[in-house]
Q: What sequence folds into this?
């Protein structure tokens, strides 16, 4: 039975990846931080077969301990402070967790496997946020990185550290440059889920508006369930490498609003949407659109869910949840 250790198991991707690996017969260990993590119950309810270990990406010894207990064939480093807006307010913490945490995870694997670092395969959750002020359209593995947020800068550090450990120690370390991926499990602070929740509440008469920031930014949005499949495929390759994972389509926040409101029969969304500068960012990533040709060719991966299906899935899920909460 193959064994996997996932950091960030309480997050959106951690849950989907746990389900995927369990369905493939893996023994799955999940690293969870904190003394009494509020998301523990969620993990136990959705993926009860995951074995929970405590640890923190800022604590090297806790990572080594997790490796010694789980003895994994594969490590998926998904843990991070992942909310871009928050990273300006907590830049040092973001650097420690999202940047230096990657070094800790790589170093833990190197120390644990000192005789043969290639015996544990390592996945790093890199991000399209690294492209920032984009230097090419669309963005591929060869596009120059120009991060625009402390989060983006930290991810660039982790990305290059992953490549460096591969080149320095022969580690089977791959970096997935994933474009935005969403789902009904997305945190409510991210724009897709903020919109799907608000649309559900507005259509049920619970709220009368939603307040957003920049409506013109464009993102390449896919479905998280499809994207964790790409992570797994990367680690099944003989050679470690870096891959862009994207739908290769881009849509604005305005298009997101149009589809989400249409899902509940509202054609004119403008009266329900307010804008507030507090949701604007000090530096914006205006346009993301990926070119995932390499992943499609080498991994045989492609997304199954496209933007309209994703928005519909999220709004319907939030409608069901909000009805339940309101006792309707
Ligand atoms: P998420 O839902 O925000 O989950 C982040 C996870 O990191 C949570 O489990 C969180 O645990 C954990 N974490 C935070 N601080 C930690 C620490 N100090 N030590 C250990 N774990 C810690 O993020 P996601 O959407 O699943 O994304 C997974 C990864 O992919 C992240 O690295 C993210 O930056 C990256 N990524 C995401 C996207 C996307 O569109 N979703 C795109 C590209 C890259 P708690 O529950 O304890 O907070
Ligand atoms: N969150 C949020 N809230 N974003 C808003 C809002 C709002 O009220 N109004 C407009 N936006 C715009 C943001 O300015 C940004 O341009 C876009 O919506 C997407 O924001 P998020 O959903 O917060 O995601 P992100 O693109 O910044 O970051 C996500 O994707 C990255 C990959 O490109 C996160 O998952 C990162 O962890 C990930 O690396």
A:
């Amino acid at each position: 039975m193959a064994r996997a250790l996932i950091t960030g198991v309480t997050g959106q991707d951690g849950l989907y990846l746990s389900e995927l690996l369990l369905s493939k017969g893996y023994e799955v260990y999940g690293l969870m931080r904190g003394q009494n993590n509020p998301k523990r119950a969620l993990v136990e309810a959705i993926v009860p077969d995951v074995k929970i270990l405590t640890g923190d990406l800022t604590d090297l010894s806790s990572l080594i301990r997790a490796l010694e207990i789980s003895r994994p064939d594969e490590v998926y480093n998904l843990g991070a402070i992942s909310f871009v807006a928050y990273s300006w307010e907590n830049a040092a913490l973001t650097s420690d967790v999202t940047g230096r945490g990657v070094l800790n995870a790589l170093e833990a694997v190197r120390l644990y496997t000192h005789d043969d670092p290639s015996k544990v395969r390592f996945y790093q959750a890199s991000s399209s946020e690294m492209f920032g002020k984009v230097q090419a359209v669309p963005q591929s593995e060869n596009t120059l990185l120009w991060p625009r947020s402390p989060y983006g800068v930290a991810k660039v550090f982790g990305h290059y550290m992953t490549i460096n450990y591969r080149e320095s120690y022969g580690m089977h370390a791959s970096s997935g440059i994933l474009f935005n991926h969403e789902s009904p499990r997305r945190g409510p602070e991210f724009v897709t889920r903020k919109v799907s929740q608000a649309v559900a509440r507005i259509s049920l008469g619970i709220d009368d508006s939603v307040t957003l920031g920049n409506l013109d930014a464009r993102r390449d949005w896919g479905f998280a369930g499809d994207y964790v499949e790409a992570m797994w495929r990367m680690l099944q390759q003989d050679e470690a490498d870096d891959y862009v994972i994207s739908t290769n389509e881009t849509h604005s926040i305005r298009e997101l609003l149009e589809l989400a409101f249409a899902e509940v029969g509202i054609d004119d969304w403008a009266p329900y949407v307010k804008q507030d500068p507090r949701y604007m960012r000090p530096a914006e990533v205006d346009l993301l659109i990926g070119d995932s040709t390499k992943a499609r060719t080498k991994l045989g991966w492609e997304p199954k869910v496209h933007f309209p299906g994703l928005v519909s899935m999220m709004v319907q899920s939030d409608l069901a949840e909000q009805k339940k909460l309101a006792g309707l």
Observations:
- The pocket of guanosine-5'-diphosphate-alpha-D-mannose (ligand 2) is lined by residues 82, 84-85, 127-129, 179-180, 189-191, 194, 212-214, 217, 219, 253, 279, 281, 284-285, 288 (CB under 6 Å).
